[in-house]
Structure formats: C-alpha cells, structure tokens
Amino acid sequence: MLSDLTHEEYAYLTTTGRRTGALHEIEIWFATDGLVVWMISGGRDRSDWVQNLLAAPEAVLRIAAESFAVRARSPLVDPDERRRAAEALHAKYATQVSATAAQWVADAYLVAFDPG
C-alpha cells in the first residue's frame, strides 16, 4: 500500500524508451498521499524519463520491495493537485534544495502517477 511507503527516500521508475523500446530505470524523489505518487523533474520536459512518459505513459514504479503498474499524467496542470504535490515533495526534500515550496508550485515540472 502506498501510504506505508511514504518514509522511503527514493522510488525507482521504469519507463519504456521512446526511441529504442528498451526499459530504463531511474532512482528519483517522490511523494505520495497514499493514492497518487508525484515526482518532480529537474530537467523539466527535457528529462529522458519525462520524454519517455510523454511517448508512453505506462510505467512501473518500485518503492522498497513493492512494485506498481502506473500511468503518468504529465505535466501536472490541476492547480490544487500541483499545490499538494509540490508541498508534499518540498516537505520531504526541503533540506536538499534551495527552492521554496511556493516556487515549486509555480514553476516545477510535476508528474502524477496513478496506480493501476
């Protein structure tokens, strides 16, 4: 269950390569409300993992020993969900960044993942 995994530091996202069709796994920051998983892309829509998801939104998300089939919503545009996502991510990783939660709400490239 996602809500049991919120304390984990990293998630592992496996996407399908948009050019090669090969699977690609990355280690990445994440936050969850127990229903949805959110991630932030430092490279905005230029990041390979984001480009892969734009071409094929289905992916596999692994957190600790749990794996989930997920579907990406990229970029995250709903203002209320953007705020929740940015604030959750910032609360978890604030000591590692100089940006504020408000900056992430306004400017970050956020991706939501729906399990199932």
Outline of the structure:
The protein is an alpha+beta fold. It has helices at 48-55, 79-93, 101-107, and strands spanning 11-16, 23-28, 31-32, 37-41, 58-63, 66-73, 109-115.
Task: Give an overview in words.
- This protein is α+β, with helices and mostly antiparallel strands and 116 residues long.
- Strands 2-1-5-6-7-4-3 form a seven-stranded antiparallel beta sheet, sandwiched between helices.
- Helix 2 crosses helix 3.
- It is globular.
- 27% of the residues are buried.
Distance between the termini: 12 Å
The parts where pLDDT drops under 50 for at least 5 residues are none
**Count, helices:** 3
How many β-strand runs? 7
The fraction of residues assigned to DSSP E strands is 25-35%
Q: How would you write the strand order of the largest sheet?
A: 2-1-5-6-7-4-3
Based on secondary structure, the structural category is alpha+beta
**Overall 3D geometry?**
globular
Helical amount: 25-40%
